[in-house]
Write a structure and sequence with these properties.
It is a single chain. The chain is α/β, with parallel strands linked by helices. Helices cover about 40% and strands about 15% of the residues. It has a six-stranded parallel β-sheet, sandwiched between helices. β4, α5 and β5 form a beta-alpha-beta unit.
Length: about 170
C-alpha cells in the first residue's frame, strides 16, 4: 500500500479509494465522489485517487470540490507502475453504466483482481465483472446514486475491521 509510487504522489496515511482506467461517457464519475463523501460522512476519512485521462475530469473535479472530497487526479501512468498504482489502494473501484452492461466488461476488473485488493463495482448485475467481483468477496451494486449509502457502509466497515481487506484481497 505504501510504496514508491504512492510516496512520489504525496499520498498520505488516509484510506485510499482508487479508480484507474478509462472514465468516459459510459461511466458516472459522480459515483466516485459520492462514495468518497459518504465514507467520510460515516467517520472514515478517505482520499479518492483517479488515474485516468478523461473527458469527464471537469465534472469530477467540480463534484469533488462541492462535496469536499480530497481528490488526486493523475494522468495514465507508465504500464510498469500499474502494480504499485493498484497496490496503493485500500479499495479499488469499477464503474459501468447499466446500458453498457450487456456489451462491455471492464477489463480493469481483471487487473484489479491481480492486485489483491477489495473491489466495489457499480456495475449491472448481469455483467461478467459483477460475477468476478462477487466471487472475490467484493461488493457489487447497481450503477446509480441510490447505491452509494450501501457502498459507503461496506467500505467503512471494511476499513474499520483490521485484516478484513487483506482477507478479501487474498481471495481475488
Amino acid at each position: 500500500r505504501d510504496n514508491a509510487w504512492s510516496a512520489s504522489h504525496g499520498l498520505g496515511e488516509r484510506a485510499r479509494l482508487v479508480y484507474s482506467g478509462t472514465l468516459g461517457f459510459k461511466h458516472n464519475p459522480e459515483l466516485l465522489t459520492g462514495l468518497a463523501a459518504a465514507v467520510d460522512a460515516l467517520g472514515t476519512p478517505v482520499d479518492l485517487v483517479v488515474v485516468s485521462e478523461t473527458v469527464t475530469a471537469p465534472v469530477l473535479r467540480e463534484d469533488a470540490a462541492a462535496r469536499d472530497v480530497r481528490l488526486t487526479m493523475l494522468p495514465f501512468q507508465p504500464y510498469e507502475d500499474l502494480p504499485e498504482v493498484l497496490g496503493s489502494a485500500d479499495v479499488l473501484l469499477v464503474l459501468l453504466e447499466a446500458d453498457a452492461g450487456a456489451f462491455s466488461v471492464p477489463s480493469k476488473t481483471l487487473s484489479y483482481l491481480c492486485a489483491g485488493r477489495p473491489i466495489v463495482g457499480f456495475v449491472p448485475a448481469e455483467n461478467l465483472a459483477a460475477e468476478l467481483i462477487s466471487e472475490s468477496g467484493g461488493l457489487v451494486l447497481p450503477p446509480e446514486s441510490a447505491s452509494i449509502p450501501a457502498a459507503a457502509t461496506w467500505v467503512h466497515d471494511l476499513l474499520a475491521e483490521r485484516g478484513l481487506a487483506e482477507k478479501i484481497g487474498a481471495t481475488s
